[in-house]
Design a protein that fits this description.
CATH topology of the largest domain: c-terminal domain of poly(a) binding protein
CATH superfamily of the largest domain: Ribosomal protein L20, C-terminal domain
Family: Belongs to the bacterial ribosomal protein bL20 family.
Pfam families: Ribosomal_L20
Keywords: Ribonucleoprotein, Ribosomal protein
GO molecular function: rRNA binding; structural constituent of ribosome
Structural class: mainly alpha
Number of domains: 2
Strand content: under 5%
Helix content: 55-70%
Order of helices and strands: HHHHHHHH
Oligomer: single chain
CATH architecture of the largest domain: Orthogonal Bundle
Radius of gyration: 30 Å
Shape: rod-shaped
CATH class of the largest domain: Mainly Alpha
Number of helices: 8
InterPro entries: Ribosomal_bL20, Ribosomal_protein_bL20_C
Largest sheet: none
Amino acid sequence: MVFLTIANLIRCRGPDEFWRKRKIFRLAAHYIGRRRNCYSVAVRNVHHALVYATKARRLKKQDMKDLWDTRISAACEQHNITAFSMREGLERSNILLDRKSLSDLAAWEPKTFQCLAAVASRKLHLDGFIDGTDQKAPTGKNLNLDNVILDDWLKEKK
């Protein structure tokens, strides 16, 4: 484009505006109607969508934590131990597993989770720990700890 006067050059908005608008229109490409074609409408809707996407990332993390806690507490109730006691017993036994790992074990490896519950229960019994946080007693079956040889290992870790 050839400008004969400096006034025409100043009035030209240049490539910056084109690329700025193009970025918004690309984000609004899947919208319907004026929300995708009209810049002033598209920019509002894109900004709203970006705000919701930012909030959703935090909510997704919180939802996953809630799901993991629900799975752990349900599996602990089956083995007659509270989730707090389970975590405390595992921590005292130097078994450091996070929520996600315990949740996966509870869902996909029930025998492994049962052994972890037995280890936690035995360690809390040896330490004389009393769980006063949960007023609701678990309704699961009592663990048969006769065939689990843990006493020597748990006593040496003390």
